[in-house]
Amino acid sequence: MIINASIIALLLVGLQRKIILSLFALVIGILMVMEYKRPSIVVSYDSQLIRYIDLSLGLYICLFSITVLIAVLIDSYMKEF
Fold first, then answer.
1. How many CB atoms lie within 10 A of CB 10?
2. Cβ atoms within 10 A of the Cβ of 29, count?
3. For the chain, domain boundaries
4. Residue 2: its pLDDT value, please?
5. Is the pLDDT higher at 76 or at 59?
6. C-alpha–C-alpha distance, residues 17 and 2, integer Å
7. Coarse DSSP helix, strand, coil percentages of the chain, rounded to the nearest 5 percent
8. HSE-CB for 6 with a 13 A CA cutoff
9. Do the Cβ atoms of 24 and 12 come closer than 8 Å?
10. pTM score of the predicted model
């Protein structure tokens, strides 16, 4: 989440940056409050295999999104030259 927030800060400027980062912080805060108020909504894994599948899927999605965002950033720099 920290990497995604920093990439948002790099790619956007001005008011757009402030709005998106504020919404990002709001969503994180809401998720934390929901987990604190209702710990029963956090469900444990049935097996280690399901846990590792979930973890690897999340990591691959993060890797893909960061790669796309960095590629967009590099392309915008290359167009300036």
1. 14
2. 10
3. 1-43, 44-81
4. 66
5. 59
6. 15
7. 85, 0, 15
8. 5
9. no
10. 0.54
pLDDT at 24: 83
How do residues 29-75 score in pLDDT, each as one tens digit? 998 899 889 888 877 888 999 989 998 998 898 888 878 877 877 88
Tokens describing residue 33: 């409050």
**79 vs 73, 74, 76, CA distance in Å?**
10, 9, 5
Give residue 14's region: left, alpha or beta (phi > 0; psi -120 to 50). left
Given a contact cutoff of 8 angstroms between Cβ atoms, the answer to whether 41 and 34 are in contact is: yes
∠ Cα 31 36 38 (to 5°): 90
Helix axes 2-11, 48-80, angle to 10 degrees: 20
